[in-house]
Amino acid sequence: MAVDPTGRDLKQFLAADPEGPVVMLNLLRFADGGRESYARYAAALRETFLPRHGGEVLYAGDGGPALVAEEGQAWDAVLLVRYPSRLAFSRMVADPEYQEVTRWRTDALREAVLQPTTSWLPA
Protein backbone atom coordinates (compact mmCIF):
# COMPACT_ATOMS: atom_id res chain seq x y z
CA MET A 1 0.00 0.00 0.00
CA ALA A 2 1.17 3.54 -0.71
CA VAL A 3 1.99 5.76 2.26
CA ASP A 4 4.09 8.54 0.64
CA PRO A 5 3.24 10.89 -2.24
CA THR A 6 5.16 10.46 -5.48
CA GLY A 7 6.63 13.24 -7.61
CA ARG A 8 3.71 12.86 -10.01
CA ASP A 9 1.26 13.12 -7.10
CA LEU A 10 2.90 16.36 -5.92
CA LYS A 11 2.86 17.83 -9.44
CA GLN A 12 -0.90 17.22 -9.72
CA PHE A 13 -1.42 18.55 -6.19
CA LEU A 14 0.40 21.80 -7.03
CA ALA A 15 -1.44 22.25 -10.32
CA ALA A 16 -4.78 22.58 -8.51
CA ASP A 17 -4.04 25.88 -6.71
CA PRO A 18 -0.41 26.38 -5.63
CA GLU A 19 -1.01 29.57 -3.61
CA GLY A 20 -4.33 28.72 -1.95
CA PRO A 21 -4.58 27.39 1.62
CA VAL A 22 -5.08 23.68 2.10
CA VAL A 23 -6.02 21.38 4.96
CA MET A 24 -4.55 17.91 4.64
CA LEU A 25 -6.66 15.03 5.95
CA ASN A 26 -4.38 12.20 7.10
CA LEU A 27 -5.94 8.77 7.67
CA LEU A 28 -3.38 6.41 9.16
CA ARG A 29 -3.17 2.66 9.65
CA PHE A 30 -0.12 1.69 11.68
CA ALA A 31 2.21 -1.23 11.07
CA ASP A 32 2.97 -3.43 14.07
CA GLY A 33 4.95 -1.25 16.49
CA GLY A 34 4.46 1.76 14.24
CA ARG A 35 2.92 4.13 16.76
CA GLU A 36 6.31 4.79 18.41
CA SER A 37 8.01 5.58 15.11
CA TYR A 38 5.10 7.81 14.09
CA ALA A 39 5.27 9.64 17.43
CA ARG A 40 8.93 10.55 16.70
CA TYR A 41 7.94 11.80 13.24
CA ALA A 42 4.98 13.77 14.64
CA ALA A 43 7.19 15.46 17.26
CA ALA A 44 9.67 16.56 14.58
CA LEU A 45 6.79 17.75 12.40
CA ARG A 46 5.23 19.85 15.20
CA GLU A 47 8.48 21.21 16.61
CA THR A 48 10.45 21.93 13.43
CA PHE A 49 8.81 21.50 10.06
CA LEU A 50 5.32 22.90 10.53
CA PRO A 51 6.60 26.13 12.13
CA ARG A 52 9.28 26.41 9.42
CA HIS A 53 6.73 26.10 6.61
CA GLY A 54 3.73 27.81 8.20
CA GLY A 55 1.71 24.68 8.94
CA GLU A 56 -0.47 23.96 11.95
CA VAL A 57 -2.02 20.78 13.38
CA LEU A 58 -5.76 21.42 13.71
CA TYR A 59 -6.62 18.00 15.09
CA ALA A 60 -4.83 14.74 15.89
CA GLY A 61 -6.54 11.75 17.45
CA ASP A 62 -7.06 8.01 17.58
CA GLY A 63 -9.66 6.47 15.33
CA GLY A 64 -12.40 4.35 16.86
CA PRO A 65 -14.68 1.76 15.31
CA ALA A 66 -16.29 3.25 12.20
CA LEU A 67 -19.91 4.25 12.66
CA VAL A 68 -20.68 4.16 8.93
CA ALA A 69 -18.18 2.35 6.72
CA GLU A 70 -17.52 -0.87 4.92
CA GLU A 71 -15.60 -3.64 6.67
CA GLY A 72 -11.93 -2.70 7.05
CA GLN A 73 -12.41 1.04 6.50
CA ALA A 74 -11.74 2.15 10.09
CA TRP A 75 -8.44 4.00 10.66
CA ASP A 76 -6.02 3.94 13.59
CA ALA A 77 -5.50 7.71 13.64
CA VAL A 78 -6.74 10.89 11.99
CA LEU A 79 -4.93 14.21 11.56
CA LEU A 80 -5.94 17.52 10.06
CA VAL A 81 -3.02 19.80 9.19
CA ARG A 82 -3.46 23.28 7.73
CA TYR A 83 -0.82 24.75 5.40
CA PRO A 84 -0.84 28.33 4.13
CA SER A 85 -0.58 26.98 0.58
CA ARG A 86 0.00 23.84 -1.43
CA LEU A 87 3.37 25.34 -2.31
CA ALA A 88 4.28 25.51 1.39
CA PHE A 89 3.42 21.81 1.79
CA SER A 90 5.47 20.96 -1.29
CA ARG A 91 8.44 22.94 0.04
CA MET A 92 8.20 21.09 3.34
CA VAL A 93 8.32 17.65 1.74
CA ALA A 94 11.28 18.79 -0.41
CA ASP A 95 13.16 20.11 2.65
CA PRO A 96 16.31 17.93 3.02
CA GLU A 97 15.98 17.87 6.82
CA TYR A 98 12.34 16.77 6.53
CA GLN A 99 13.37 14.01 4.15
CA GLU A 100 15.70 12.67 6.84
CA VAL A 101 12.83 12.18 9.34
CA THR A 102 10.05 11.18 6.96
CA ARG A 103 11.37 7.60 7.03
CA TRP A 104 9.91 7.38 10.56
CA ARG A 105 6.47 8.01 9.03
CA THR A 106 7.04 5.57 6.18
CA ASP A 107 8.24 2.83 8.54
CA ALA A 108 5.34 3.47 10.93
CA LEU A 109 2.51 3.05 8.44
CA ARG A 110 0.92 0.07 6.79
CA GLU A 111 -1.54 2.26 4.88
CA ALA A 112 -2.39 5.94 4.61
CA VAL A 113 -4.63 8.43 2.88
CA LEU A 114 -3.32 11.96 2.42
CA GLN A 115 -6.29 13.97 1.10
CA PRO A 116 -5.97 17.69 0.36
CA THR A 117 -9.13 19.63 1.21
CA THR A 118 -10.29 23.18 0.61
CA SER A 119 -12.89 24.99 2.65
CA TRP A 120 -16.43 25.58 1.48
CA LEU A 121 -16.62 28.56 3.81
CA PRO A 122 -15.52 32.05 2.75
CA ALA A 123 -12.09 33.12 3.96
Structural write-up:
The protein is an alpha+beta fold and 123 residues long. The protein has one domain (19-63, 75-117): Alpha-Beta Plaits, CATH 3.30.70. It is 42% helix and 26% strand. It contains 4 helices and 4 strands. It has helices at residues 7-16, 34-53, 86-94, 96-108; strands at residues 22-30, 56-62, 77-83, 109-117. The chain has a 4-stranded antiparallel β-sheet with strand order 2-3-1-4. Helix 2 (34-53) crosses helix 3 (86-94) and helix 2 packs antiparallel against helix 4 (96-108). The longest helix has 20 residues, at 34-53.
Summary of the model, kept short:
This is DUF1330 domain-containing protein. The protein has helices spanning 7-16, 34-53, 86-94, 96-108, and strands at 22-30, 56-62, 77-83, 109-117. With 123 residues, the chain is of the alpha+beta class.
Q: Which descriptors would you attach to this protein?
A:
123 residues, alpha+beta, Alpha-Beta Plaits, 4 strands, 26% strand
- Order of helix and strand elements from N to C terminus: HEHEEHHE
Number of domains: 1
Percent helix, as a range, is 40-55%
Fill in the CATH topology.
Alpha-Beta Plaits
Alpha plus pi helix count: 4
| Rg estimate, integer Å | 14 Å
Could you tell me the mean pLDDT?
91
Please identify the top-level CATH class: Alpha Beta
The major β-sheet equals:
4 strands, antiparallel
Which strand order spans the largest sheet, edge to edge or round the barrel?
2-3-1-4
In whole angstroms, how far apart are the ends? 35 Å
Q: Give the overall form.
A: globular
Low-confidence residue ranges = none
Please name the CATH architecture. 2-Layer Sandwich
Strand content: 25-35%
Look at the helices and sheets and give the structural class: alpha+beta
Q: Total strand count, please?
A: 4
Protein name: DUF1330 domain-containing protein
InterPro entries: Dimeric_a/b-barrel (IPR011008), DUF1330 (IPR010753)
Organism: Micromonospora endolithica
Domain DUF1330: 35-110
